[in-house]
Design a protein that fits this description.
Layout lengths: L10 H9 L5 H63 L4 H21 L2 E3 L12 E8 L8 E6 L2 E3 L2 E4 L1 E7 L1 H5 L1
Helix pairs in contact: 2-3
């Protein structure tokens, strides 16, 4: 007896189903239970992965906040001293002396954070750590040597935070020799 085709089945599908080995109800229930277990396990693993990703983002943000708070703590006394300087009624020389002390305090705070200035004076121009503001013809300074620092550059270990803005000598006498 041939099985009647329903609207969605083709003759090939019916033949393939008819050729398939018969599966007992017990085997079918076992496979279905195994599939359900695997689907459940997959859903749990996906949830664990998502939770781990969210935890990592949260921990990274907390670490960044902790690191920033450590840096800010170093600069609060500097800010306090600037505010005291603004309230000062001393002479211009006294104010200058106070600002010089604050600059030293700021430099010490930067050193404690492993921030080092980029070497400039007397150094040869290096475009990886220096930014040339201008080239000036100077016969008393070697060619490509920095003779003026306009803005100090800084680095943390080997990572450049900001290049030094410098004026560089151009010595045409050395170029010709």
């Amino acid at each position: 007896m041939e099985t009647p085709l329903n609207e969605t089945e083709s003759p090939e599908t019916v033949t393939a189903v008819a050729d398939a080995p018969a599966v007992s109800q017990e085997e079918y229930d076992r496979l279905k239970a195994e599939r359900d277990t695997l689907v459940d396990r997959l859903a749990r693993l996906q949830a664990e992965f998502e939770n781990a990703r969210k935890r990592e983002v949260r921990e990274r943000n907390e670490f960044r906040d902790f690191a920033v708070s450590g840096a800010v703590e170093q600069f609060l006394p500097v800010l306090d001293n600037f505010q005291l300087a603004l309230k000062s009624t001393g002479s211009a020389d006294q104010l200058r002396t106070g600002v010089e002390l604050i600059v030293k305090q700021m430099e010490e705070a930067l050193r404690s954070l492993n921030v080092q200035p980029v070497e400039t004076f007397g150094a040869t121009f290096d475009p990886r750590v220096h930014e040339a503001l201008e080239m000036v013809e100077k016969n008393d300074v070697p060619d490509q040597q920095i003779f003026d620092e306009v803005r100090r550059g800084y680095r943390i270990k080997e990572r450049l935070l900001r290049p030094a803005l410098v004026r560089v000598a151009s010595n045409s006498q050395q170029k010709e020799a």
